[in-house]
Every structure is written in structure tokens, then in C-alpha cells.
Amino acid sequence: MQTNQILAMFGGALLLLGLIAFFLGRAKASRVRAGGTAMQAQPDQYAWFAVLSTAGPALVLSAVGGFTLLLLGAEIPTLYLLVGSLLVACLGLAVGVLMVRPDFHARQAIERVIRFVLAGAALISIFTTLGILVSIIGEALRFFQMQNFWDFITGTTWNPGASFLEAAGRAEEGASAAQFGSVPLFAGTFMITAVAMLVAIPIGLLAAIYMAEFAPTRVRTVAKPVLEVLAGIPTVVYGFFAAITVAPIIVSVAGFFGLEASFNNALAPGIVMGIMIIPFISSLSDDVITSVPDSMRQGSLALGMTKGETIRDVVIPAALPGIISASLLAVSRALGETMIVVMAAGMRPNLTANPLEDMTTVTVRIVAALTGDQEFASAETLSAFALGLVLFVVTLSLNLVSVIMIRRFREKYRVNNL
Amino acid sequence: MSQSFDDISAQLKRRHRKSARLKWISMGALGLAGLFLVLFFADMLVKGLPAFKQAQIQVQVDYSEQASQLPLAAVNEDVRSLVSRGYLRLIPGRMEDNPDLLGTTRLEWVLADGQVDQYLKGHHSKLKASEQAVVDRLVEQGRAELRFNTTFFTRGDSKMPELTGIASAAMGTLLTLLVTLAVAFPIGVMTAVYLEEFAPDNRFTQAIEININNLAAIPSILFGLLGLAIFINFFGVPRSSPLVGGLTLALMTLPVIIIATRTALRSVPESIRHAAFGVGCSRWQVVRDHVLPLALPGIMTGSIIGLAQAMGETAPLIIVGMVAFIPDVTTSFTEAATVLPAQIFTWAGEPDRAFIEKTSGGILVLLTVLITLNATAVVLRKKFERRW
Q1: What phi, psi does A251 have (nearest 5°)?
Q2: In Å, how far is B113's CA from the nearest CA of chain A?
Q3: Does A120 lie in the same domain as A183?
């Protein structure tokens, strides 16, 4: 409450100073111009420059000050910092008004400030990536100080059960030592991703072929946005659908064939995830297929190939880099998909090749590790960041390869709209 | 040996049949995807529509002195187990707010217990045979029926299915999206303007571009890890609050807005810029007075689509703790809150079968809002799109 009030007062004071700067600057500029001197800029531009020189340094100072306070953890009262910023603001106001001179290019100065601010905004996206890297790597390193890296990569048992006791200094009470072998998690992830791809790639690719090569324009204009609806449905909704509707169907179908299936089987989330991913593949493949040059189709048809043969032997091979790129993007999406598997896949790490059994995935364990009431420094909580790091590296490499493939396609056929 | 014409034409026929087969198969694939969509919506409608109706029964409510102490005493013994327990608990509070009620007895429509609701909807219920008989009698007398479920839209979460609602989650979603919009929109537009209009083509610019494309493809759950490690643990933003959720979603929405804005800026023809420069505008004046206004519809469309995406996002919000149990509607940016998708997730985990209906009802509301948002974006684009 106290800080809120101080912040509000600071904001109010700054606003007031800004207003003063604006009117003082404009008044002075108008006076000078009325005196008959030719000026480099309009009075309003001088006024805006005065405002910028008042508020800019003060805001930068308070932001940088606040950040260093947090970083060093020092407890200097915010009050001093803000009062200091206000003093800087007053100084800036004086400078800003003094700068209102006929030979001063106020407009160019504003331009420079704006360019600077815009570049700063662009930097935020870099900071986001850095933030993800720093937060994940930092915590993952803490995890690997507690656990062996090789055990994490090659171990086949994931049993974090007792790790929070260790963190609480009560390791002896735990029945068994915590084990963080991530192989079962990756096996589950790849199983579900594979099921999703088996659904998404054939359907998505064939739908793209139909839309690009066969469909009348009217069908195309309707079908494309309707397919996009599939991608717009929130994943939590798909998760519910997979768990409540699809999983029981799979269990009863498997039962019909005399097979035993778990209600948390890997098939249900995989199939539903595949449905979700169809539009990713179909949309990008459609774009790629339509941008294969028509001269290739004409050449093929002129040699007497049927339409189907042209598509199979000419168009698809030409579009292959783009199709692979789309599929890689889809794989990367499936690997990182969380809600569907959290709701429909199992919690039990299970190393098996049977998709009817329950399996768990990397993302499920990340969520499970971070939603319980756990000490933040425990190995289980930190394991989420180690898993996140692996996920980040894998998806990033898939994305990069995908970008390279699509660039190669674009350069080969000189397509510019991809 | 040369082949006869018959052989060749038979072969040709085969080849054309093969070609036709590809057409039908690919058409089937598209149809299959459409079929999934239809089945999905049908399933959600069948499961979710009953959530908008809730059983109410007409009983004598006795606002006696005793009822203000022991709310169960307010209704007659034979229907006591049929009235929602949570509703009975509200009676003393209502008597405090409205002292005139004391000592009166009124015939009122009250919220029925969740089991009665399930029974009336023809689902499995845990009612005893004797209770079922009472409900059947009440239905015959017209004293028990399914009415429009206002509770669902006016109340927050509850452990009792008949008293749950989406109001607190809807408010949480609104607050979170306000934060997201306030952060992502200005930064996104500024970044796009910088990259399209100001930036020189150098290493720095290319790095930003590659970076933005990568951000768009990073799994959303990693943004949750970022929010947890940076916003909560480092900056000390309150956990579970709309503020931290909104900031996390803002970072996710940023690439969407940037990419949409860049496309919109690029579609403004160069001649506009040349003309503005020609009359002596500075670069910023060109952008502010000419390029941005012309690109605005495209920017709005992109931002709405980005917001709709953020609205359906759950995974990063779970990581930053927005799956809290929130019974009351809060309007603070720093107190614990939940959002619609997270509410759906919470309900989906409830063991009570009545919650399946509530979950699907919540999903229908969420989908309606999302479709409305996306339709608005499409309409905006259609209405203001200019071909140069």
C-alpha cells in the first residue's frame, strides 16, 4: 500500500513536471518566433523535446535504480530513489527549456530519441529469449549439482518421490533415494508425438493436396478457415475431449479386440494432438504446393502424365523441403504440447512400446513438479527446469532446421511470399 | 513385340483411375478433418448445454430465529436433503441483510442439490429410492423443474457443482488479458515499426528477426518457466496474480503481434512514404501520420488474434500458479485469480460426475468468446482491407 502511494505520487509529480515543461517550452519557442527569428522547428516540437528531456532521464534512472536494487538485494528505500529521479526530472526540465534556441534542431532530437526508444522495444524480444535461457539454464545447473547429468540422460527410472525429504534435510526418512532417469519420459513424449504425427501428416498433407490441386475455389475459400478453427481451439479443451470422450472409446475398441487398454493410454492424447496439428501441416503445405511454379506442372502434363502422376512425381518432390519443414514444426509443437497430455496421458513414468498403456511425458512431469506444495530448492522442482532445458534445445533445433529447409525451397524456386 | 492399342488404352485407363483415386482420397482426408470438427462440437454441445439449466425446487422456507443459527431448519425435513446445502448456508447471511425476513415463511424456488439436478437430467445420481420418489412427486406437482442457470454466470468456483460458476474466472481472464494487452500491444507495435521503418539492415536487426521467429515457435510451457523464475522468484510479483499471468502471456503474444504488424506495415505502399518524405516529413512523422493509420486495421486484426490465442492458453498459467480455487470475484491485479481455461482444467479434475457438465459448459462459453473474437478480426480485416 505504502509503495503504491509513493509510486502514484511519483507518477503524478512527473506528469505535472511534464506539463510544465510542455507549456514553458512552447511559450518560450512561440516568444522567440514572434520576435522574428527563423527557427529550426515548430514550437510544439520544442515543447515535446522539453517533455522528453524532463521525463526520459528520470524514468531511466528510476528503472535502472529499481533494477539494481532488486539485483543487489539492497534495501535502499524507494523513496530516496524516486526523489532522486524527480530531481533529475527538474534538471531535465531546465535543460529542455534552455535548449529552446533558434539554431537547435528539436525535431531531429526527438527523432533520435524515438529511434532509441523503438530499438529498446525491439530489444525486449531478445531479453525474453535471454530470460528463458538464463532462468532455465540457471535452475537446471542447480539441478545438475544435485544429480548426475549422465544418470539424468541415460537413467530409466524416474522416481522423484523422496527428493523433497532430502531438501528438508531428512534424507534418512525417505524409503528410497530419488532417481531422475529421464528416458521413460522421453520415450512417452516420442510415443505420443509419433501417434500425433501418424494422424496429422497423412491427413494434413492429403488435405493440402486436395485444396491446392483439386478443389474448386469455392471449396478452398471455405475449407481453409474451417480447418484453421481446429488450430484455434484451446489445448485445454482438446485435453478434456481426449480424456472424457476419446480415451473411453479407445478402451472399448481395444476391449472389443481383446486388448487391455489403460484409460490414460498414449493413443488418446496422441490422436487428439494429431487432429489439433492437422491445420499446421495442411496450411503450410498448401502454401508450399501452390508456390511450386506452374511451368513444372505444364511440362509434366505436356509429356502425357496424368494429374495424379504429376502431383506424385513432380509437384510433391518439388515441394518436399517445405513439407518436411512443416512436419518438423509440427513435431516441435507436439513435443512441447502440455495441456492435452497433462489431462489425458498418465502420470506414471513407464518405459514401454505399447501405446495402449499409460505413459507420461516431459511436459506432464514439468507441470507435476511445479504445481505441488514443494520447496523451490528441492531436486524435484528443479528437475522441471532440467527437463525444460532439454525441451528448449530440441524444439529450437527443430525450428532452426525447419527454417533452413524452407529458405532452401524459397531460394530454389524464387518464391517470395513464404 | 509392340503392345496392342488395347493394352495401351487399358493401361491409360488404369493410370487415370489411379489419378482419380488420389483425388478421392485427398478429398476424404479433408472430409475426415471436417468430420472431426463436427464430432467435436457436437460432443461439446451435448455435454455442455445441460450446464446452462439447473434444477430448482419449490419449498417452504421458514425464516425463523432457529434458521439463522441452524440453516438446515429453514426447510421441511422431507425435502431437506434435496435442497442445495450451499444454498441453505447462505440463508443466515440473507436474513442479516434483510431483517424483515425474520419470522416469515415463504414459498420459494430454491436451488436443488446437485444430485437432484443429475436425476432430473436423466443421469446417474446418488439419490435414495425414497428421495427419488419425493422428487418424482414434486415434478408431478410442478414444484421441481430445470430452470436457466444464472448461478453459473454470477458465482465463482465452488466444491458443490450446483453452486459453481465462471464469474471469478471470467473476471480473472479479463484482468489478465488487460495486462497482456497493455504490455504486448505497445511493445509489439514499437518493435515492428522499428524493424520495418527504422532499422538498418545489419547483424543486430537480423538477430532480432531470427529471435522473434524462434520465440513464436517455443513451447508455451517454457514461458511459464520464465514467468516463474524471473517474474515471481526474481522480481517478486505475487504468485497466481493476474499481473504475473498477464506478463507471461504478453511475452508469448509479443511475436504474434510483431509479425502481424510487420505484415500490415509492409502492405502500405512505398509511394505513401515517398509522398510524405517529399513534403518534408521526418521519418517519425511519416510513420505516425501516414503509415501507422493505414496499417491500423491489420495491426488490430493481428492483435485480436494474438489475444484470442493468449486467452485459450493454460500451460504457462498453471506454472505461475493461476489454478487457484477462487470462490469470490476479485478485481485486483495482485491477488490470486484464475482464468477460464484454468477453471476448465480444475473442473476437469473434479471426481464428481456433475462437473463434467460444468466443464463442458465452461468450454462452450470459452469457445463462444474465442469464435466471436476471431470473427471480429475477420470482419475487421474484410471491412478495412485496402488493395493498393
Answers
A1: -60, -45
A2: 24
A3: no
